[in-house]
Amino acid sequence: MDKNLKLKTAEIEKISHLEYFNIAISVDCVIFCYQDKKLQVLLIKSDLEEFSGLYSLLGDLVRPDEDLDSAPYRVLKQRTGMDDLYLEQVRTFGSIDRHVSGRVITTAYYSLIDIKHQKLSVDQNELHWHPVKEIKKLAFDHKIILDSCLQRLREQVMEFPVAFNLLPEKFSLRELQELYESILGINLDRRNFRKKIALKGWLEDLEEMENEVPHRPGKLYSLKQAYRKKKVSKKQKPVLENIFSK
């Protein structure tokens, strides 16, 4: 160690940089579901007067005694009653004026859920599902955050079998294509889509047919066991396998 180096205590460092240690950290959760043939996101009515009438993502400040990756699970448990979701960290947003109360840096997480298997406690600030394509404005910079998470999802769906988290265990190719179209925001050619999906080797033919549908019944499929996301703890990150490397 350099004998001429003058060391300082952590307390002196804090006192000399008070403005730096007074920046708040928050988390925002982008929770997607697929319902009524639409990609939807969970929003809550903002409780700030400055954003009266606007919806926002589910989020909160990170507590002084709380790990960053623990905060979004707390937010979801408190606001929705859901505590068994996997949240993927997307990116951090730190514009100087993004929060009306002061300097707040937020980290965004997103998750995909099968709406039929989630019990959502809707009892706070008009907590509702909203079609993504109909959302024009949100409180804070939450529209930018939503768009960023949607872009991440769009980048992943053709490379990894993540979209299947939005579907029930059994589904038809028609339902799968409608899901992809809702995520990508475009119409897909039926023949080309089915060819691409077949080449990936994700699907298992259940040798069953749809029942009670208003159209010609189609075959039912499920995601192969090898590609199903294993349960992970809040401190673990699942390994996404790149199927194109096979």
Description:
With 246 residues, the chain is an alpha+beta fold. It folds into two domains: 15-156, Nucleoside Triphosphate Pyrophosphohydrolase; 167-245, Winged helix-like DNA-binding domain superfamily/Winged helix DNA-binding domain (Arc Repressor Mutant, subunit A, Orthogonal Bundle). It has five helices and ten strands. The strands form two sheets. Strands 1, 2, 3, 4, 5, 6 and 7 form a seven-stranded mixed sheet that branches. A three-stranded antiparallel sheet has the order 8-10-9. A hairpin with a 2-residue loop joins strand 1 (24-35) and strand 2 (38-45). It starts with 9 loop residues before the first helix and ends in a 23-residue tail after the last strand. Mean pLDDT is 86; it is low at 230-246.
The name of the CATH topology of the largest domain is: Nucleoside Triphosphate Pyrophosphohydrolase
CATH C-level of the largest domain: Alpha Beta
Taking the alpha carbons of the first and last residues, their distance comes to: 50 Å
Strand content: 15-25%
Radius of gyration: 22 Å
Low confidence ranges? 230-246
User: What would CATH call the architecture of the largest domain?
Assistant: Alpha-Beta Complex
The largest sheet is: 7 strands, mixed
Give the overall pLDDT as a whole number: 86
SSE arrangement, N to C = HEEEEHEEEHEHHEE
Under CATH, the homologous superfamily of the largest domain reads Nucleoside Triphosphate Pyrophosphohydrolase
Helical amount among residues, as a percent range? Answer: 10-25%
Counting structural domains, the number is 2
Which structural category do the helix and sheet elements fall into?
A: alpha+beta
Question: What coarse outline follows from CA principal-axis ratios?
Answer: elongated
Count of helical stretches: 5
Number of strands: 10
